[in-house]
């Protein structure tokens, strides 16, 4: 009977707002219902342990452990609310008839394209969603983008395509990236990721036209989702409020904990954008260290990814380059992370991109009016 009561109270805590605070994947803080501080709930090899008297002195499964388990179950339940599927056309684009059949292959120097015939209107057509007017096949373009964002240079991508019988210049490859990164950015900007309440921000220097610039970036701690970015001319004099505001707009909320280094611009931006007199308020952790739960190692790992990509390019050519946005899309929606058990950050945020070729799926959906909009989609808290 008492166990059932603790389970019920744990569920009440989990359903209440801002009662559970995630420190990391195995450490949570649960507010005491009496108002006397908070209890630490830790996951160990032997199971969950709690610092409350019920668990320490009686050895029972307390309501705080139940609360954390219910909270995790709720997150799993809402984790796949957005599914981006490949678009398959089963009707004639001219008369909308479903009586279509494959009718030969169209050959050209850029590759073979499947041709279709409509039995009703008698017209031939090709299905090339998002790639209308492009000489190269969709598979060629998306392969080039995959190669580039995994670390190859534009000229190395050009050489690879030539081995496949596709003769294009490295400039054409860059134009493909520029076109489709812009298209996907507009589409994905309307989808709200299910990020956690702990965010991390950091800055990374890079070269733009030979000049030293700084990339300020915001990442979610739990899912490693790259939330927002901006390029600044300076480090110490830059106003990071724009980064914090953009991250808030993308996520549809503000974090409960913001982890940064000791750069003063972060604290000024935090005070202007996130801090309020009303509780619960966002906590700013700027005294990070190498070990413990207040380190910024995950953010440094993402900085390493960006640095590896920038070395191949030998610097950026302009501040508003599509390369950084493209790499953000690659990091969030394409690249699988070992720290997420093989998932992409988007999948960890409840956004599933289906299909063997995720670039193709994203471009197809970006070429049509999106079905998900931030204005009518409310993220789970």
At a glance:
The protein is α+β, with helices and mostly antiparallel strands and about 375 residues long. It has helices at about 1-15, 55-60, 65-75, 140-150, 155-165, 170-190, 240-250, 265-275, 295-315, 320-335, 345-350, 360-365; strands at about 20-25, 25-30, 40-45, 45-50, 80-85, 100-110, 110-120, 125, 200-210, 210-220, 225-230, 255-260, 285, 350-355.
Q: How would you portray this structure in words?
A:
With 381 residues, the chain is an alpha+beta fold. It has a domain at 2-77. Helices cover 37% and strands 21% of the residues. The chain contains twelve helices and 14 strands. The chain has helices spanning 2-15, 53-58, 63-77, 138-149, 154-163, 170-188, 241-251, 264-273, 297-313, 322-334, 345-348, 358-366; strands spanning 20-24, 27-31, 38-44, 47-50, 82-84, 100-108, 111-118, 124-125, 198-208, 211-220, 226-232, 257-259, 283-285, 351-353. The strands form four sheets. Strands 11-10-9-12-13 form a five-stranded mixed sheet, sandwiched between helices. It has a four-stranded antiparallel sheet with strand order 1-2-3-4. Strand 3 and strand 4 form a beta hairpin. Helix 5 packs across helix 6, helix 6 (170-188) crosses helix 12 and helix 7 packs across helix 8. The longest helix has 19 residues, at 170-188. It is globular and about 80 Å long.
Key features of this structure:
381 residues; alpha+beta; five-stranded mixed sheet; four-stranded antiparallel sheet; 12 helices; globular; disordered C terminus
């Amino acid at each position: 009977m008492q166990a059932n009561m603790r389970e019920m109270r744990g569920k009440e805590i989990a359903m209440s707002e801002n009662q559970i605070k995630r420190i990391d994947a195995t450490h949570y803080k649960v507010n005491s219902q009496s108002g006397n501080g908070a209890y630490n709930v830790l996951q160990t090899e032997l199971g969950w342990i709690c610092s409350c008297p019920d668990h320490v002195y009686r050895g029972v499964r307390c309501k705080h452990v139940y609360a954390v388990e219910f909270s995790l179950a709720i997150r799993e339940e809402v984790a796949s609310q957005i599914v981006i599927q490949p678009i398959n056309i089963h009707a004639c684009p001219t008369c909308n008839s479903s009586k279509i059949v494959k009718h030969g292959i169209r050959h050209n120097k850029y590759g073979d394209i499947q041709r279709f015939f409509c039995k009703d209107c008698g017209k031939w057509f090709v299905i090339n969603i998002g790639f209308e007017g492009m000489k190269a096949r969709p598979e060629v373009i998306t392969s080039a983008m995959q190669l580039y964002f995994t670390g190859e240079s534009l000229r190395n991508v050009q050489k690879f395509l030539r081995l496949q019988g596709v003769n294009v210049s490295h400039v054409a490859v860059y134009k493909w990236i520029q076109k489709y990164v812009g298209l996907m950015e507009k589409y994905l900007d309307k989808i709200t990721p299910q990020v956690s309440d702990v965010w991390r921000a950091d800055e990374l220097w890079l070269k733009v036209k030979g000049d030293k610039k700084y990339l300020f970036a915001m990442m979610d701690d739990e899912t490693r989702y790259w939330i927002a970015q901006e390029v600044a001319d300076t480090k110490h004099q830059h106003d990071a409020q724009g980064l914090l505001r953009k991250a808030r707009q993308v996520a549809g909320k503000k974090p409960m904990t913001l982890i940064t280094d000791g750069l003063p611009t972060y604290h000024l931006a935090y005070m202007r954008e996130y801090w309020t007199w009303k509780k619960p308020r966002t906590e700013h952790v700027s005294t990070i260290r190498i070990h413990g739960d207040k380190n910024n190692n995950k953010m440094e790992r993402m900085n390493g990814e960006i640095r590896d990509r920038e070395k191949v390019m030998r610097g950026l050519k302009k501040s508003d380059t599509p390369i950084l946005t493209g790499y953000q899309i690659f990091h969030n929606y394409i690249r699988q992370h070992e720290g997420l058990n093989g998932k992409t950050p988007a999948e960890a945020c409840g956004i599933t991109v289906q299909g063997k070729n995720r670039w193709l799926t994203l471009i197809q959906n970006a070429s049509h009016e999106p079905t998900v909009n931030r204005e009518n989609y409310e993220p789970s808290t």
